[in-house]
Amino acid sequence: MHHIIEFLTLLIVKIIETSGYLGVFTLMTFESALIPIPSEITMTFSGFLASEGKMSLFTLCLVGGFANLIGSLLAYWFGFWGQEHFVRTLIKKYGKFILVSEDEFDKSMKWFKKYGESIAFFSRLMPIVRTFISLPCGIAKMNLWKFSYLTLIGSLIWSFILAHIGFILGSNWSKLEVYYRKYELLIGTLLIALVIYFIWHKIKKIKGCR
Predict the structure, then answer these.
(1) Residues 31, 131: contact at Cβ < 8 Å?
(2) How far is the C-alpha of 148 from the C-alpha of 163, rounded, in Å?
């Protein structure tokens, strides 16, 4: 696994160095379209480039967020038209070629059933689950506009967090990926908690102004 991640890192870095924003858009689209390309690498490295003045941090966040939306819509429609039985059959047969397991699919289905449509937003802030959550949303025929809105907002936040961290870390950006893989659940939970606190604080502030 270490060698796979190392190869992916080198490949992602090369693509972004060669094609800039287009490379970021392509990689982030693939990531949300069930291709396991770590956004932790894509966006943090891009954030590092922004710290050197080679990219714009604001533009990166927009590119990453909208690319995730496009990829998520592809996965959504796959679930919408294929439905659970067809999707599961394909994952059983071909999932190993794109590192998608039936267990991960089952996990995303359980998350959707447990947390409902709001998971389309919160899952965007969690590694691994964010890649597959569009499938159960499509299978459940979640309202497309609501799915798109929640997905875009969550994706923009995720892109901003990763790009900003890469911007701050600078040339040390690559050290972050190790910790994401080791503590992904903890980090994802903390990110969600921070977002919930931010929303709660804003609502409380607005009510206090009335």
Answers:
(1) yes
(2) 22
Instruction: Please provide the DSSP assignment of 27-73 as one string.
Output: HHHHHHTT----HHHHHHHHHHHHHTTSS-HHHHHHHHHHHHHHHHH
Distance between CA atoms of 6 and 30, rounded to whole angstroms? 18
Q: Which residue has the tokens 């606190």?
A: 197
Cα separation, 198 vs 202, in Å, equals 6
3-state SS assignment for residue 209: coil
Per-residue pLDDT of 13-33, as tens digits, reads 889 989 999 999 999 999 898
Q: In this predicted model, what pLDDT tens digit does every residue of 32-68 receive, in sequence order?
A: 988 878 888 899 889 989 988 899 999 999 999 999 9
Ranges of each domain in the chain: 2-208
- Under DSSP, the state recorded for 122 is H
The Cα diameter of the chain in Å comes to: 58
For residue 183, give the DSSP letter.
S
How far apart are alpha carbons 103 and 106 in whole angstroms? 5
Residue 124 contacts residue 157 (beta carbons within 8 Å): yes
